[in-house]
Each structure stands twice: as C-alpha cells, then as structure tokens.
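Quick one, T. Sequence first:
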Amino acid sequence: MYLPKKILMMTFCVFLAAVLTSCGGGGGSSSPASTAQTIKWQLDGNGFVQFFTNDPQWYGYTFWNTYSQANEPQMTTVTASVVKQSGSPTCGYGIVFCYQDSNNFYRLLIDANGYYCVYAKVAGVYTAIIPWTQAHTALLNSGFGVPNEITVTQQSPNNFSISFNGTQETAFSDQNFTGGTAGFCMGISATTESFPTTPEDARFRLTSPVVYPFSTAVIEGAVPTGLRIEGSLIGADLQGIIRGQATNDSSSDQ
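Structure tokens:
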C-alpha cells in the first residue's frame, strides 16, 4: 500500500529538480543574447543594406563596401541615407567617396551623438580634413533608429561641400582625389562596445550617383580603427572612426 506513495514522491522530486534547473538557480542571461554573429552588407528587406555584428573578434575594426556602378571619373554628388539601430553612440558610420583602392579615398562619418568628421587616406596614411565636430543641431539627427541623409558634392575640382538632410553644413578643399567610386563604412569600437548583448547594427542606402541596393559589391575591406578622445585627437588617431581611445593602424583586407 505504500508503493504508490513512494512512486508519487519520487516523481515529485524529479519534477522539482527539473524546475530548479530550468530556472538556473534564480538568475543569469538568456543564451540567445550570447550568440555572436556578423552580417556584412546584406539586404535587409526594407530597401537598405545592413551591417550587423556582436562578435568580439571585430573589436577595433573598420569595414567598408564600395560599388563599381557608383564610379565617376569626375565625382559629382554622393548621397546616402543611413540609420544606426544600436551600438556605441560614439562609433562612426557613413560613406567613402572618391575611392581609388583600399589605401586611397575620402571618408565622411557621423555618430549617434550628432558629430561628424572627414578623413583622407592617401598612400595608406589617414589625415583629418575635418576632425570630429558637432554638427548644427537642426541639420544632423542624433540618436538610434533615426535616419540621416548625408551628401558630399564636388562643387568644382577639389572643392567639396557637405550637407545633412538637405542643408549644407560645411565645405572643404583637398587636392588628392577628384573621382572614383563610392560606398559605405562602418566602425567597431575596441573599447566602448557591449558585445554580444548590444550589437553594432546600421543600415545604408545609396541614392546618388546611383541607387543602391542594386547588385553585389566589388570591394570589401577591414582595417583596425583609430579612436578619438572627446574633443581632441590623440596618439596615432589618424583614422577617426570612433570618439574614444587610440589604437594601432595596421591593415588586413579581407
């Protein structure tokens, strides 16, 4: 007569142990958040291409993509719509233009705090044309999930203007490049990311000189980023991808 009670008690103990195990002792993060993945310049289904990563192996790297269909022997205007969904607010994202090869191009970046910069890379060496500067509040939207239209126009050979959301912000002159192809750029911080919990996730769409998404990319590069302390350049920071702490500048195309 005691056998059914014994079986019932054993069944209850097994069930209780299973419940406690599934609760993880009362705390801990879920496993999906710890899964690292990277999406490089893939269509997102909403008219944009996406760059996404929460993989710590990419800490301190910059990625770019350029498109042969955007090539102009004499650059006119490069315009892109960009949206940052998540990531480090001081990590730059934007466009490359007058792109010759992985060692020679211009780059215009913004961040989620309303700053922007322009750099030239010539013979593999980065130089700040416009270091990180806070844009006029009404011109550049700040925050995550907020679109910005960024535009560079070559007004005359070697003379360029920069506009945000249809309004000119500033202009610059530089003698290095007047033509080339164009594409997108994404920086990953070495110090201010929270991978894998919070990914770097940004969306890009080219509207001039051609509309993209339209086909596959022809060039993809990845080089360790230079970083920037708020307000001033330090150390080897000639890349200006992130407002943070400087790192080495070596390249490794892939």
